[in-house]
Amino acid sequence: MKNIDETAEERHRAKMANRKAVQDAEVAEKTLEKGLLIVHTGPGKGKSTAAFGLALRMLGNNRRVGIVQFIKGAWSTGEQPALAVFGDRVVWHTMGEGFTWETQDLKRDIAAANKAWEKALELMADETIGLVILDELNIALRYDYLDLEKVVAAFQARRPDLHVVVTGRNAKPALIEAADLVTEMSLVKHHFKAGVKAQAGIEF
Amino acid sequence: MKNIDETAEERHRAKMANRKAVQDAEVAEKTLEKGLLIVHTGPGKGKSTAAFGLALRMLGNNRRVGIVQFIKGAWSTGEQPALAVFGDRVVWHTMGEGFTWETQDLKRDIAAANKAWEKALELMADETIGLVILDELNIALRYDYLDLEKVVAAFQARRPDLHVVVTGRNAKPALIEAADLVTEMSLVKHHFKAGVKAQAGIEF
């Protein structure tokens, strides 16, 4: 614990009072409520993980969550058994057959992506669902497995209170343009570079 | 669905086979298992959310999770009731008294941060716990509420299989230096700018 004199305390109080005034004014300006189109992109870790974190937050607010995995799915991840605890409050569709370099079959990849997109539309139409996570949709868009214009149009036509999260590297500019919230996860440092392998609870 | 000729398919197959070979070689090189020190920093959304997503992944792998919130805590978030479903597999300590501009009391902030750090050390010493999340610890370090050297030394002395996630903006360089995995969440676009307010399931 530091030794603090009265002056430092007073300075801190004044600075923080000022900060609070700015903060309160900013909060007061925001009055809209709307379902958000959220994009998690970039080369860093945390894109899907943060989407699943939002699922948790949504469940804690007593809303239902729908999830479609566009690419992953050839292996199991920890989120699925964990979210199973919430029963039918989570609807989970694993449509992908693994990364595209695993299947090496363009026709099959396109068919899988389109089937996954049908599921996405179904979940987005379900009024009991507050959040739809479209995991790795950006990959399907990047490889042109799905029509970008069709996808963006469906997002723009969604019901006003529905939140949608799209994850995956290399988000298309038209999707970023249509989104309300875009976060880029950048890689500052990665343990794979140091020879550490994928581990339970971290990568899957 | 596109009309694809044989050549395009063959090209796709060759490209993806090559990609798979690179991928497989990369995976084979990684043989280490170790508890990671993970840092989520940057001005974007998703730092805490991705940490809670990792908690979910860890729980799905049947590991226990410990959480200390250093700053937040003056209001409730959806994660807490959601994770309550997992019973004593999640240990949650909310030690902060709100953002520092809410308390405006330097001594109280320092005392709260040090109390939170004691809890963090307790969780890190608990061998039944696989992941410890120190939410907003970076804020406490930034304002010098805690001694940086002491904190980094404790991380370096942790047991080899323990994963630790530290969140918050402005991570200190010494912490980044000590970390295995650092992701910076950058703000590409934020709905607050468009006047949208904080909403249940998204911000809390």
TrEMBL record, chains A, B:
NCBIfam families: cobA, PRK05986.1
Cob(I)alamin adenosyltransferase N-terminal domain residues: 8-27
Gene3D superfamilies, per the entry: P-loop containing nucleotide triphosphate hydrolases (3.40.50.300)
Family: Belongs to the Cob(I)alamin adenosyltransferase family.
Coiled coil: none
Claim: Cytoplasm is one of the keywords in the record: yes
Reactions catalysed according to its record: 2 cob(II)yrinate a,c diamide + reduced [electron-transfer flavoprotein] + 2 ATP = 2 adenosylcob(III)yrinate a,c-diamide + 2 triphosphate + oxidized [electron-transfer flavoprotein] + 3 H(+); 2 cob(II)alamin + reduced [electron-transfer flavoprotein] + 2 ATP = 2 adenosylcob(III)alamin + 2 triphosphate + oxidized [electron-transfer flavoprotein] + 3 H(+)
Example GO biological process: porphyrin-containing compound biosynthetic process
Keywords tagged on the record: ATP-binding, Cobalamin biosynthesis, Cytoplasm, Nucleotide-binding, Porphyrin biosynthesis, Transferase
GO MF term set: ATP binding; corrinoid adenosyltransferase activity
Protein's recorded name: Corrinoid adenosyltransferase
Pathway annotation from the record: Cofactor biosynthesis; adenosylcobalamin biosynthesis; adenosylcobalamin from cob(II)yrinate a,c-diamide: step 2/7
Region (Disordered), start-end ranges: 1-20
PANTHER family for this protein: CORRINOID ADENOSYLTRANSFERASE
Enzyme class: transferase
Biological role: Required for both de novo synthesis of the corrin ring for the assimilation of exogenous corrinoids. Participates in the adenosylation of a variety of incomplete and complete corrinoids.
A GO CC term attached to the entry: cytoplasm
EC number: 2.5.1.17
